[in-house]
Amino acid sequence: MRFRIGLDIGATKTKIIMITPEGKIVARAKIKTDSDKTAEPIVERASAAIENLVRQQGLTMTEIEAVAVGIAGFSNPRTGMIDVSPNLHWCNVPFKQLLADRIGKKVHMANDVNAAAWGEFTTGAGRGAQDIVAVFVGSGIGGGIVCNGLLVEGGTGTAGEVGHMTFRAGGLQCDCGRRGCFEAYAGGMPLERRMRQAAAAGKSPGLVKLVKGEIGKINTRTVRLAAEAGDPVAAKAWREAEEALITLSANLISLLNPDRLVIGGGVVEGNPGLFKLIKDKVPVRAVALSARHAQIVKSELGDDAVAIGAAALADLYRRDDLPGG
Ligand SMILES: [Zn+2]
Predict the structure, then answer these.
(1) How far apart are the CA of 182 and the centre of ligand 1, in A?
(2) What is the CATH number of domain 3-120+304-317?
(3) What is the C-alpha separation between 14 and 8, in angstroms, rounded?
(4) Nearest CA to 46 among 89, 97, 102?
(5) What is the mean pLDDT of the chain?
(6) 3-state SS, residue 287
(7) Band of the pLDDT at 214, cuts 50, 70, 90?
C-alpha cells in the first residue's frame, strides 16, 4: 500500500491527513502554523509531524507515495512558488522546494480551494463524475473546476476564483479591491460586516432585537432569521445574497456544463434553505440542457476537504506531462 499525506495550511492551524489510495483516512494530526512572514518554521514543524505520523502507523517514509499541500493564497503549481499568501504574509516563497528538500519526497501544491474541489471530485460528492464545479461559501466564496477529469488550475494556479467574478458592475466594495464581486454580496464575512455596521448605526432594529443587542452575534444565520421576521434591511441583504448565489451557480452550469455542481461551506451549512433555493432556481436561469444534466449536490468532506484533496493530488500529478508534476 502506498499512502498519501495532505496538508491544509491555514493562518493559525495546519491539518495533516494520511489517506489510502482509495481516499480512506488512516491518520490525522493538527499543529500550529505559527509561521508569520517566513515559511521555515512551518516547513520544520510540518515535516516533524509528518515523520511522527508515519512512525505512529508503523510505516516508513518509503511507504508514502506523495506529500501535498493545499494553501490559501496565490500559489503556482508550475513553479512551486507561493507568490502571495495574504493570510500568512508570505511573498515569493518556494514552499514546494523547501518542504521537498526537508522531507526528501516529491511535494505537490495547490491553492486550498482547488485542492478541496479535487478532494470532492476524488472521494466526496463528485466521485464518479468526469466534470464538476465546486463552490464553497464560507467567510469568502471560493471555487474549483474539474474538467475531463483534470483540475483546472489555469496559467498561474489561480483558476476557479468564482467569488471574484462580477455580480454587479460598480456594486459593493469587495475585499479584493474591486467592486461588485459575488463574494461582496454573499460571502459570510462581508455580509456579516455590512449588517453589523447597519445594526450599529440603528438601521436594522429587527436584527438588533434578534441578537438581543449583541452585535457580535450577527452572522448569516441571524441575518436570515431577521429577514424572515420582516426586518427590511436584513431582508434586502439576504435577498441579494441569495440572488448572487443563484446567479453564480447558474452561470457556472451554463459556462461549463458540469455533471455535478457541488455546493458547500459554512454559509450553506448554517442556512439549510439556501441549498434548496439554489437547486430550485438554477434550472430557470441556466442553459436548459446543461441545467437538466447537472446534479446539484452538497459537499461531503467538510473541513477535511483541503487536506484530503491535497493528498489526492498524487492521482492528478502522476501524469508527468502536467506542469505541476
Ligand atoms: Zn472580489
Answers:
(1) 7
(2) 3.30.420.40
(3) 5
(4) 102
(5) 95
(6) coil
(7) very high
Hey, where are the domains in the chain?
A: 3-120+304-317, 128-189+232-299
In the prediction, which pLDDT does 314 show? 85
Residue with the three cell numbers 517514509: 61
Cell of 229: 421576521
Q: What is the pLDDT of residues 34-45, one digit of tens each?
A: 988 899 999 999
Q: Which residues surround ligand 1, an ion (CB under 5 A)?
A: 164, 174, 176, 181
CATH class for domain 128-189+232-299?
A: alpha beta
| C-alpha of residue 124 to centroid of ligand 1, in Å | 28
**254 C-alpha vs ligand 1 centroid, how far in Å?**
21
Q: Residue 290 has what pLDDT?
A: 98
Q: Which three cell numbers stand for residue 82?
A: 507561493
Ligand 1 centroid from CA 136, angstroms = 15
Q: What is the pLDDT of residue 321?
A: 53
| Mean of pLDDT values over 144-169 | 96
Distance 41 CA to ligand 1 centre (A): 31
In angstroms, the CA 92 to CA 78 distance is 14
Nearest of 306, 308, 309, 286 to residue 296 by alpha carbon: 286
How wide is the angle at C-alpha 148 spanned by C-alphas 143 and 152, nearest 5°? Answer: 35
- What local confidence, expressed as pLDDT, does residue 243 receive? 98
